[in-house]
Amino acid sequence: MTVAPTATLILGNIDEAGDYTVVRGFDTADNVFGNGWRGGWIGDKLYALAQDGTGINWELELHNDASRVWVSAILNDVLSMYPDIAVPNIANDELRHAQKDAFTYGVLRRKDLSAAEKTAIVNSAANISFAGGTLSVGFNDLTTALDSVENQVSMKGESFTEEGLMRDWPHGNNLWIDLISEKQKYKRFAATGIGKAGYKTGAFSFTLGFDDKMTVTSIVGAASSFNRGSQDSTGDLSKTKNKYNSYGIHAYGAYSPSSNLNVVGTLTYLRSSSDITQYINAAGFGNADADVKTNLLAAGIRVETTLKARSSSVVPHAGIPYVYAKSGKYDTKVDGKKIWSNKTKANHAIQFPTGVALRGDIATGNGWNICPQADLTFIPQAGSSNQRTTLTDVNGISDRISGEFAGNFGTNVNLGVQADKGGAPLGFLYGFTGGSKGKADHTLRLEAHWRF
């Protein structure tokens, strides 16, 4: 078999990697000598059109045996055309095997979208838990509840006198509730294949607790918390909404032998549930969904003292809370069909809140004690601040991604007032937390107590 040396062979409309026969049934024995081939053309001008839709080129190699000449075609790495795609292993597998019912294949083969648009769709779906702020809202719910718990036995609050001594009441019982409204946002998170993203959140929560003054110097209590909120993504993501809630149980205690020392300890378990919907509305797809459950454990200690300053009390304080967070396995579905299973790694974080509170005590003529307070706290954080996830498709092909969920520093300011008369204190507080990654958190807290 002889072909002109100047011949050109162009393969068109190749869908998947494999062998493509040029000729079959010919006796090519005379064309072979030693390890070489003679017959004119040796495949110097062998081409294939880029894969339809994706624009990815092929690697081609000419082969022959005793009766056949064929071309082996392997699709170039998806990163050659889509360098920022978050799931290259999964994409390569789907494209090279022409898995027409697969999500990534379906997006990348679209001709009506640019490479950047297709990359953004795939990356947003791959990072659906990050886009929904799963760990961020879980950490925030935990922090909100712990603030309520710690405030119950802090020297800056109504459980202590202005001299920094534990207050006495008839039987030492204290039933309390905090009602909390909160708005939060982050602006500058990044994830695998996502340059800049954030979210806005609105939430309502309450924390209900009971404690008992066990001795002259100690208080022990327990509380439960519930939070419900809604989160919307911002930045370089497909529009994503997370309707979430959390339930928590908390144990706490305080030991204060004198006005010079108050030691507060807390132990918490919180479970957060995120119902995430991502609105793709492109490439022939509607919505992506994920239902993510996250367990959080926290243990902390806080130390504070009271310093008198004329008619006010100054309460320096420092603490070390440790937080463990782990999301369970979950599936990513598109239009109701499972496309990936997801497995996350645990996160460990340690905070070092250090600050000072200022407290005033004003006795009115009709028996009320008014206690205005202000607190400034700096909160550095160490540990893991990236949500790490392994995605696996139906063929067992995996990719690893990660996304930020917290910054490494924050500043918290709280302003409020408590009013106490006859064993039923009331309080109203406003809090603001600003920090790295564009964090801005506004909190309104209404608290009520019944001592008996």
Automatic annotation (TrEMBL):
<dbReference type="InterPro" id="IPR005546">
    <property type="entry name" value="Autotransporte_beta"/>
</dbReference>
<dbReference type="InterPro" id="IPR036709">
    <property type="entry name" value="Autotransporte_beta_dom_sf"/>
</dbReference>
<feature type="domain" description="Autotransporter">
    <location>
        <begin position="168"/>
        <end position="452"/>
    </location>
</feature>
<protein>
    <recommendedName>
        <fullName>Autotransporter domain-containing protein</fullName>
    </recommendedName>
</protein>
<dbReference type="Pfam" id="PF03797">
    <property type="entry name" value="Autotransporter"/>
</dbReference>
